[in-house]
Fold this protein.
Amino acid sequence: MVEIRQLYKSFGKVSVLEGIDLSFDQSGIFAVLGPNGSGKTTLIKCILGMVIPQKGDISINGDSILRKWNYRNHISYLPQIANFPQNIKVIELIYMIKNLRSQSAQELDLVEKFGLQPFLDKKLGNLSGGTRQKVNILLTFMFDAPLIILDEPTTGLDPVALIYLKELLRKEKDRGKTILITTHIMNLVDEIADRVVFLLDGKIYFNGTADEMKSQTGQRNLEHAIATILKKEYY
Amino acid sequence: MIKILKYSFYDLMRSRWSYIYFLFYLILGFVLFFLNSDVNKAIITLLNIIIVLTPLIGTVFGIMYYYTSREFTELLLSQPLKRSTIFVGQYLGIVISLSLSLVVGLGIPFIAYGVTRSAAVWNFSSLLFIGAFLTFIFVALAYNIALTFNDKIKGFGFAILLWLVMAVIYDGLIMIVMMQYSDYPLDNFALAAVIFNPIDLSRILILLKLDISALLGYTGAVFQRFFGTSMGMIIAVSILSVWVILPLLRIISVARKKDF
């Protein structure tokens, strides 16, 4: 479904991605992990066309997506920082994104699930960080796109919302979707991810299942497995 | 594009600053028209205010809007939209809302004063036209600066500096050069100097329209002598249009290549 070939990106002198080769060819949940500054967000933004790579190609369903925009009709993206226009109400933002995409959306279910009903008429500037993140999640999941990309979806969520999020991810996966997710919460990865891609200094350090990663590093949980890799590389 | 324009427009229309800007013109209009016995004098006072203030407000709003809506722009960029659609849409949203504050803010007192009572309606309209034109130019320039500098402070600094140079320092520099080289023929230099400053150009355009040669100044007089009044006006409007088109083209080209 998504194929990345020899992707290079640097910002000025800082090289962020150094020849990434990666493909997500079936449905499932793929966790992109890595320490801060390892290039996770840059990789995701390249897929979205927000960052333009210097070299390499990305194709979705066989078509190169570089410098195109139409393909984004088939992607739902949850950005890392949910910072919306302050003067707009939640309900207006929902309508606005629906209107911009000209696609049908299933938002009512999500509003109820995340308890956003009382906030619909509030301005986004007056919402707490967690509530804003819930709105962010709602905007992502209300469309029926085959590819879902989530950048740190758990930020600021309370446990109840977190449970709903996991439920949502499983449901979407069962419907045959490809879900890319970056996170620092290893429990989440352990629980839901089918495959783990570990980025280190702009290269793919590991690509396999969470269990493989644990056995390779001789650790019993993912957090320690990753810590082991990082210690070996950095300390 | 229309959708983005609409949302940016509504977003700004809800901001307190749009109302302050609108109220400022409203009060200014009432004060000038009703406390001034001569409409033409009021228009000249307005000219002097508009010619400095619209570029300043355009610059500040343009730069602030870009930086404060940056995360939201990222959200838009992840949607199935062309980049040029997003940025040109935002640009038009800002420009239209600011121009509306100007036109409605000054228009209400003018209508209240009585359009029919005054022959100055065309002069007044051209003043509003110039104000809107300057807004188009300076918001475009501000957006260029904002797209070039990711650092908010740097961008803001450059934008204010640009306004300061165009509105204040430029004239001073030209004057110094003219005094230094007063022994030489400076007509061509003066003409070129005018072309590179939209504020000067607007001032000349409106003075040509008002037909007040006494206020034209040296550059304006050269301009009038060189092109004549009507040709001068056409040329001035054309150059002002270039001042909108070129920055707008650069917005599109920079936005296409930029990483977000």
